[in-house]
Amino acid sequence: MHALFIVFEQLANTKMKSNRNGRALEYLLVEKFTQFYCSPMLSAQTEHDQCRDRDHYHSLPIEMQRYYSQHCETFVQWVKEHRVADEGSVEIIRISDHDAVKGDVTDIRLVTATEQYNLSLKHNNNAVKHQRPGNLFAQLGIANKAEEKRYRAEITAISNQFFARASQYKTDLFNVVKSHDESIILSFYDAMCQLVVDTINSQPVSAEESFDFLVGNCNFDKVIISRDYIEVLPFSDIIKPTLLT
After folding, report:
1. Domain that holds residue 70
2. How does pLDDT run across 215-233, given as a tens digit for each residue?
3. 168, 184 contact by CB (below 8 A)
């Protein structure tokens, strides 16, 4: 059991590193927007965020700093040509995670006198949102405390079953458990996913609310930056579903 707690600690450390890398990327892209637009303006909160995250960027490996910088400059030039022309003042705003909880997946927003451009910035992944099973009822706007309590109890039962099976190998690494018995991990995933699916199918879930949670509630470009490429995926004027099947 102790080894499994170490696993979760390692996962938490990995997530923290990913968050730092993401903040470093947001920091640098805002810096490049500020550098390449003639009349940039930063909100007070954005200036605070830039000061907070400056060290995250400068603590990255040199090679990572290099491709972050190269790709951010390339993307800013693309934005100037295809999304927001360099005409007049451009306000550059970093959007908080609190807004994401409310459905706005924007990381950085550019605002001019005539338009607004939203972008969701990703490093090495193409996710829009990460669905967390424990918060399913809140995410889908289901107000049923009794059913939510039952649902969370089933999550605990599935997790405890996984802990019990994996603890026999006395390791803090998932790949070691997998090398001994891959079914332990696969059955955990299957059971958790099945619980989520069954819960969604048995509850009065709004297709539109589900879509807004998974995709977002505003037009935006999803921008994926990795070592070797930049990809821009438009999420604009998508017709919302009316049925959830």
Report:
1. 2-129+217-235
2. 777 899 999 999 999 999 9
3. no
Amino acid letter at 243? Answer: L
Assess if residue 243 is contained within a domain. Answer: no
Write the CB contacts of 137 (distance below 8 Å, at least 6 apart in sequence).
143, 144, 147, 148, 151, 203
Instruction: Please tell me whether residues 63 and 113 are part of one structural domain.
Output: yes
Regions of the chain short of the pLDDT cut 70 = 1-17, 98-103, 127-131, 245
Task: Give which of 60, 152, 79, 80 is closest to 121, Cα–Cα.
Answer: 79
Residue-wise pLDDT for 126-172, tens only, equals 766 666 788 888 777 788 899 999 999 999 999 999 888 988 888 77
Closest CA to 34 of 73, 83, 78, 82: 73
Is the domain of 201 the same as that of 222?
no
Sequence-separated (6 or more) residues with CB below 8 Å from residue 165: 181, 184
Residue with tokens 């609310």: 209
Q: Would you state the structure tokens that stand for residue 210, as one six-digit string?
A: 């589900």
Residue 242 inside a domain? The answer is no
- Same domain for 76 and 102, yes or no, is yes
DSSP line for 54-78: HHHHHTS-HHHHHHHHHHHHHHHHH
Within 10 angstroms of residue 221's Cβ, the number of other Cβ atoms is: 19
Q: What is the pTM of this model?
A: 0.73
